[in-house]
Amino acid sequence: MSAARPEREPRLAELAAVLRDAASVTVSTGAGMSAESGVPTFRDTQDGLWAKYRPEDLATPEAFAADPAMVWDWYEWRRTRLAGLNPHAGHRALAQLQDCLAAVTLITQNVDGFHQLAGSAQVLELHGNIRRNRCAAGHRSPWQAGVAERPPACPQCGGLLRPDVVWFGESLDSRTLEAACEAAAQCSVFVSIGTSTVVEPAASLGRVAAAAGATLAEVNPQTTPLSALSEYCFREPAGKVLPELLRRVQARGSA
Ligand code: OAD
């Protein structure tokens, strides 16, 4: 497997050609995808959420059981902050890539809903969506700003509402995970963007794709455990690489 080569422009053009020729493409995104929108990542040493907070205090069922108001307030802070932010050019480029390439499956660990806001359809959200709530009985409802109760009651059954996200120690939605695994195993190109690739089961998807013979590409300023398996590595922000990649895919398409 070749390491990232210095000649960036030809490599970007080459990846664009590989994508255009691919029968199916699977894209997997993580927190770095939304970093340029102003959403903090989890593991970046300076600004990462887990550099400032302990996940076991805020993102586990045990934490919610012990202090629902504190967990609710932390998510309210994240949600309120998110309400003032928007998808960036990289999110929009990915949505457009879905329109001009064959069979693109988009998998994300992000809970911010930015891919959908940027125009992507049928996003496999492995870790849920922070813009929704759910209760223990599984009733889902949209998050609303400015509700006094912390947490509010489910409008359907009166149970405590919580953010509709996956916490540490919880299982992912089985159908979503199954679809993601299938998309990884069956794609000809797998593109990993803005994830440290350390949280399972999402971290395994790239390895599954590589084992099945897919070509791997990575967009991330830092190396990850997936880098060694990746034929194409772009050590730059997603908001810079993806619009350029889209332009090259489109240019080749009209040639
Ligand atoms: P991490 O915070 O672990 O990793 C973010 C990655 O994005 C790092 O590898 C950065 O180098 C990279 N990055 C930063 N800025 C970037 C940019 N502008 N463009 C591209 N890449 C950039 O986030 P995740 O891998 O998404 O789970 O973390 C996975 C899961 O861990 C999250 O979904 C969350 C967390 O605990 C739950 O809450 C269940």
Protein architecture, described:
This protein is α/β, with parallel strands linked by helices. The protein has 11 helices and 9 strands. The protein has helices at residues 8-21, 32-35, 49-52, 55-58, 61-66, 68-83, 89-100, 114-117, 174-186, 204-211, 238-253; strands spanning 25-29, 104-108, 123-125, 128-134, 140-142, 162-165, 189-193, 215-219, 232-234. It has a 6-stranded parallel sheet with strand order 3-2-1-7-8-9, with helices on both faces. Strands 5-4-6 form a 3-stranded antiparallel sheet, with helices on one face. Bound molecules: 2'-O-acetyl adenosine-5-diphosphoribose. 2'-O-acetyl adenosine-5-diphosphoribose binds next to helix 2.
Q: What is the structural class? A: alpha/beta
Q: Biggest β-sheet: count, sense, barrel?
A: 6 strands, parallel
Q: Low-confidence segments, ≥5 residues, pLDDT <50?
A: none
Named once each, the bound ligands are: 2'-O-acetyl adenosine-5-diphosphoribose
Question: What is the mean predicted local confidence, pLDDT?
Answer: 93
Strand content: 15-25%
Number of helices: 11
What is the helix fraction of residues, given as a range? 25-40%
H-E string? HEHHHHHHEHEEEEHEHEEH
- List the strand order in the largest sheet: 3-2-1-7-8-9
Query: What's the number of extended β-strand segments?
Result: 9
Q: How far apart are the termini?
A: 30 Å
Radius of gyration: 19 Å
The shape, in one word, is elongated
